[in-house]
Amino acid sequence: MYIGRFAPSPTGPLHFGSLVAAVASYCEAKTHHGKWLLRMEDLDKPREVKGAANTILKQLVAFGFEWDDAIVYQSQRAELYAEALTLLKNQQLVYPCTCTRKEIADSSTHIGIEGAVYPGTCLSHALKENAAVAWRIKTPNQTLCFNDAVQGKICQNLHQDIGDFILKRADGLFAYQLAVVVDDAAQGITHIVRGADLLDSTLRQIYLQQMLHYQTPHYAHLPVACNAAGEKLSKQTLAAPINTENAAYHLFQSLQFLGQTPPSSLQFETHQNIWQWAISHWQLAKVANCKSQIIQIQ
Ligand code: GLU
Ligand code: ZN
Predict the structure, then answer these.
(1) pLDDT tens digits, one per residue of 69-93
(2) Distance between CA atoms of residues 189 and 218, nearest Å
(3) Ligand 1 centre and the CA of 180: distance in Å?
(4) Based on the domain organization, do 100 and 43 belong to the same domain?
(5) Residue 204 CA, ligand 2 centroid: distance in Å
(6) Domain boundary at 156, 176, 196, which?
């Protein structure tokens, strides 16, 4: 059984990059006669844009996506994340931390993939009194690898490249890394197709899966859509929200970006015909095996 998913964060409407992830995960699920689930990653309430979740759902409907089962909202699942954290606490794999960002920057001895690596201060020093506590997981000092269906073999030493990372933030919110792993397992996800901007997170997620005794799904990381300046398309780079009035054109463009060589006449077809073409011609092997690819947005 194939169970795939699309997991947008409601920090803004869908943009081209998120549409590409939706299209690819959908085509993969459909060609495998699997399910395609939808999960709203609305965990980070401070970053959420009001109304964005509903806008995304409307956009998906306008594009003709059909999801299976009920939509999962991460904001309603804190209990599940807390249970997983307890399992990790029981194994002495996590520890509380009261360090501020500045203290970490000042005390870190080396820079990893995502900046200053946390030096493990709170493992050997007393916690600050009356300070809000974050929870970190101890990372193994060994190389972990996985095979990505698009990007090939990816390896990291979590201890050196990332450092002990946060599972629950000092403001009480659970971190994306924990929530995504708990939800993918709870929803029985077998295949994850998403943007290569999450490639660097994957080994953290695989490590958490191992510590929680979950199965590791198969991964495929798509090139991320960039503008001509090489910047990732996201709300931060002010990527234009996708206009669903041109849905056929955007679907056509997504398929093109994904290396599927749709005939140019397809952009004038009905959504139904586009999906029919897309699903019957879909080949993951045609997706470029690079982390980013330039696209001209019109
Ligand atoms: N919610 C994440 C995002 O929109 C995607 C998470 C995932 O696919 O694992 O970037
Ligand atoms: Zn600390």
Answers:
(1) 999 999 999 999 999 999 999 999 9
(2) 9
(3) 8
(4) no
(5) 19
(6) 176
